[in-house]
Amino acid sequence: MNNPKFFFHVLVFIILLFFLILGIKNIYFPSQKVLKQHPREITYYFNHYGKIKNIFFSEEDEVSNGSILVRAEDDTLNKLEKDYFNEKRKYKLLTSALINSYKNGASDRAINNIKSRKVQSEKKLIIFENKIDELKAPFELKYKNEFKGRILKIFKTNKSSFIAREPIIIVKPDLPFYSFNKVMAVFSGIFIIIHLVILRLSSK
């Protein structure tokens, strides 16, 4: 029993047992601190009441960082977006008109006039884009995680109403933390069995 190899295997067994227990704990019984750092599920909701405009995914769909999950209705935002698209259409028409004016040999005065209108249209587009970006944040639910996720549950449909903090959608992030702990637990368990056999043989 004073065999150094025997005590070495006992030490290895204890270390492996520790990693097995740690892996099982992190997978099935994670602490609140672990869940905060590595959430199994993320529930999305709005901080105000309103109506759903668009749900962009279905259950089981994969989402990536920055994906817009849901957009809520807002009259001011809808009007701004409508004005933006109208101005964008106008800008494209002015661009085409400027190209054609060069091709057709229009006067400098006519070309400068189109250029001036195009510059003004471009400025308006930038203003619209900035205003839309400022307004849309409270009316969008966006997935923000460096790892991809999967839509687990959707509680609402397009045009349905919601109240503040009512769950709209749940996403399950594909976090390597839990995969790593699962692998660690499995391999620790396998090596524990191997070392139990070795310990049994060493004790004879």
- From the N-terminal CA to the C-terminal CA, the straight-line distance is 9 Å
The percentage of residues in β strands lies in 15-25%
Poorly predicted regions? none
Topology order in helix (H) and strand (E) letters: HHEEEEHHEEEEH
Radius of gyration (Å): 30 Å
Order of strands across the main sheet: 1-8-6-3
Largest sheet: 4 strands, antiparallel
Count of helical regions: 5
Overall mean pLDDT stands at 90
Q: Based on Cα principal axes, name the global outline.
A: elongated
User: What's the total count of β strands?
Assistant: 8
Helix proportion range = 55-70%
Structural class: alpha+beta
What does this protein look like?
The chain has helices at residues 4-28, 32-37, 75-103, 108-136, 176-202, and strands at residues 42-44, 50-55, 62-63, 68-72, 140-142, 149-154, 161-162, 169-173. The chain is α+β, with helices and mostly antiparallel strands. It has a domain at 1-40 and 175-204. It has a four-stranded antiparallel β-sheet, with no helix packed on it. A four-stranded antiparallel β-sheet has the order 5-4-2-7, with no helix packed on it. Helix 1 packs antiparallel against helix 5 and helix 3 packs antiparallel against helix 4. It starts with a helix and ends with a helix. The model has no long low-confidence stretch (mean pLDDT 90).
